[in-house]
Design brief:
There is one protein chain. Helices cover about 50% and strands about 15% of the residues. By secondary structure, the chain is an alpha+beta fold. It has one domain. Strand 4 and strand 5 form a beta hairpin. The chain starts with 10 loop residues before the first helix and ends in an 11-residue tail after the last helix. The relative contact order is 0.13.
């Protein structure tokens, strides 16, 4: 069976992603093609589409989302938001060429993410993502993940209000 369970992710994933995209500096969420990838070792990964394929697909960016991890995280909207925003912050439009590019690390946007969510919460969310990935392989880790998620040890919602 293919690692891509579907060519396009579930409506719920697309809806959450588009909501986050529209809150960012992107004017149009139609430049993104969202694909479910069950083998992805993190919640979200973004890849640019080459110019040649852009013509055929009418998309500029491929967004791979692990639907199993999304299911685990979706009970806490803040976890999903931070992980999606963290990846989206690496995408920008080059002012000279007008093309969409991806940086490995963009200090300005990452600073804005830290300012919005605090560095402590971003660290905790990234740790939760690692634990969730481990829990897909080991059921004992899954109990630990859900216990931390249930106890809100990771991200306290009042911080985001």
């Amino acid at each position: 069976m293919s690692r891509f369970s579907k060519l396009e992710a579930d409506d719920e994933i697309i809806e959450v992603f588009n909501k986050i995209v529209l809150n960012k500096a992107f004017n149009d969420s139609s430049i993104f093609q969202i694909i479910a990838d069950t083998n992805l070792k993190k919640l979200i990964s973004i890849k640019l589409i080459s110019e040649c394929y852009e013509l055929f697909l009418n998309k500029s960016v491929l967004v791979f989302v692990n639907p199993e991890l999304f299911e685990m995280f979706k009970t806490d909207e803040n976890l999903v938001n931070i992980l999606f925003e963290q990846e989206l912050d690496n995408i920008y439009t080059d002012e000279k060429s007008g093309k969409i590019k991806k940086s490995q690390y963009n200090l300005k946007t990452n600073f804005e993410l830290i300012k919005k969510h605090t560095s402590d919460n971003i660290y905790k969310v990234n740790e939760m993502e690692k634990l969730a990935i481990e829990s897909l392989k080991d059921s004992n880790k899954r109990d630990e993940f859900y216990e931390k998620l249930r106890d809100k040890i990771v991200v306290k919602p009042e911080i985001f209000e």
